[in-house]
Amino acid sequence: QVQLVESGGGLVQAGGSLRLSCAASGRTFSNIAMGWFRQAPGKEREFVAAISRKGVTTGYADSVKGRFTTSRDNAKNTVYLQMNSLKPEDTAVYYCAGAIVGSNNWYGIVSGSYGYWGQGTQVTVSS
Fold first, then answer.
1. Alpha-carbon distance 77 to 29, whole Å?
2. For the residues 40-67, what does the mean pLDDT come to?
3. Class of residue 98 by CB neighbours under 10 A (exposed 0-12, middle 13-18, buried 19+)
4. Do 24 and 32 form a contact (C-beta atoms < 8 A)?
5. CB of 29 closer than 8 Å to CB of 74
């Protein structure tokens, strides 16, 4: 089993920044590809960003490309989502997700690819 705990959410004005963290435990973190997803009220959960298990590859949704950056510190069992130039439409509950994989390059962009999920952290961007 993998346990994931997000932190770092909050209220920020448009144009501001936040950094989310997701701490993992339970399995060897460097074997786990990590993804970030978000869900706004009344909307489906959507892909935001992902990073392969060694940090070799990353991927981003078009809506956040150039503004968000995901990274990981395998020594600290933590993945990060740096969010800059935030917009009101970024308001959502943000979830980190993990998948135990054998590839150093793989990451998933579909929520069904991940078997482990955090509890979510609220991000609210005011206009």
1. 6
2. 97
3. buried
4. yes
5. yes
Do the Cβ atoms of 72 and 55 come closer than 8 Å?
yes
What is the C-alpha end-to-end distance of the chain, expressed in Å?
A: 40
Provide the CA 49 distance to its chain's centre, in angstroms.
Answer: 6
Q: What are the Cα distances from residue 71, in Å, to 41, 42, 44, 47, 103?
A: 27, 29, 25, 16, 17
pLDDT one-digit tens code per residue, 68-116 = 999 999 999 999 999 999 999 999 999 999 999 989 999 999 999 999 9
pLDDT at 29: 96
Query: Average pLDDT of the chain?
Result: 97
Between the alpha carbon of residue 10 and those of residues 46, 95, 120, the distances in Å are 19, 14, 12
Among 55, 47, 66, residue whose Cα is nearest residue 108: 47
